[in-house]
Amino acid sequence: MLSFLLVHAIALTGVISTVIMPDTHALVHDFLNKLKRRKIEGSKGTAKLTAELLRTVISQQRIPNTNQAGALIDAIKAIGEQLVAANPVELAVGNVVRRVLHIIREEDLSLTTSAIGGPSLSVISDDENDVDRDDYPALSAAVVAASARNALRAPSLQTLLEDMSHSAALHHSSSSLDDSEEKTKSTDKNSRSRKLKHNVIETVNELIQDIAACHEQIAEQAVEHIHHNEIILTLGSSRTVIEFLSAAKEKKRSFRVFVAEGAPRYEGHILAKELIGRGLQTTVITDSAVFAMISRVNMVIVGAHAVMANGGVIAPVGLNMVALAAQRHAVPFVVLAGIHKDLDSHCILPTPGRLGAYGLCPLYPHKPEVLLNELRSPSELLDYGEFSDCMDSSTGTGFPLLHVANPAFDYVPPKLVNLFITDTGGHNPSYMYRLIADYYSADDLVLQRKPAS
User: Which regions are flagged for Low complexity bias (predicted)?
Assistant: First the structure.
């Protein structure tokens, strides 16, 4: 009866893990459905939710005593491949998965380096494969000194008796040492697995915080790039662009913003309302008027869906046209990229220049119009009821005569980009590959989608 009441009390307080811990499989399944149905929009929001999901998976993952980092990596890779397949165009998902894999590798290396070169070097090896050291049990200093004294003295009855007593004591201590070794090894491995998970989760928490606040560091540089009486052109509805322009306004910069309406979803209308609400002088223009108005513009500032390894940009549809117009009239084309500093407080390795970003993608644009794009609903362009009679009735095949193409993204090649503004400063497109090389582990690039044959 007492045990029943105790268990009931523990359950009420939420101590039992099965009561308070969410079902990982259910969370992954729900997130997969949201990705497939395009219920999550925006690279920043998708990256943050992906990192939070992987954090939950890591916290609930049971790690074996051997190959602890490998078990975590396999689990994250298995889930990551599912997430990437659910929405291949949302590159932020794969980027965050790669970043978490890189974090696991770094934390495992940090713990290994600390165990080998730390101040408390143990005579018992932490490596279960270190057969040489396991086959020869460690001896205490007293036993070694006694053996040395015995080797120097002449053989006698007393010496033989002492040798026998030392041998018996050594055998006893060796046998008790074997038992303590096993217990110590088991304890050390359990402690190391907890330490690995703790460090990884702490670093993923920092990654989530950096993703949430990355636009703030970018906005701080606005006053360095926007000056008085300038005209800025933008397209799309990027939160980073909004904060960037608002920061310049707060620094008493007086400028005007041209906003292309971004048909057919008209995200420019949403952006214009946001800018007006923050006190910015805003002019809405049609997408087709970009070439006509670009000669009056001092700078084009846009956000990015993803930055490719070659410095190219996956961006909202229509931006390639804007970039071509800017190049034609020698107007700087500036991209705000979500890059953040990721200084790992747990990693003892000297990596102060290491960077991280959910928007940096290690992929190269192979046929971007096919692999890195998606077609949105035709209803954004045309009302189905008005064109439902556009069928080929003469042949009886029932195939429609009218087709609607509504791509979501454009690919802007690096030659059309003048500058990337990140929270680490401004970067040339050619420098982006170096950032990406520091950002991901080479072993984690298996998530890269192969180009279509």
Answer: 168-177
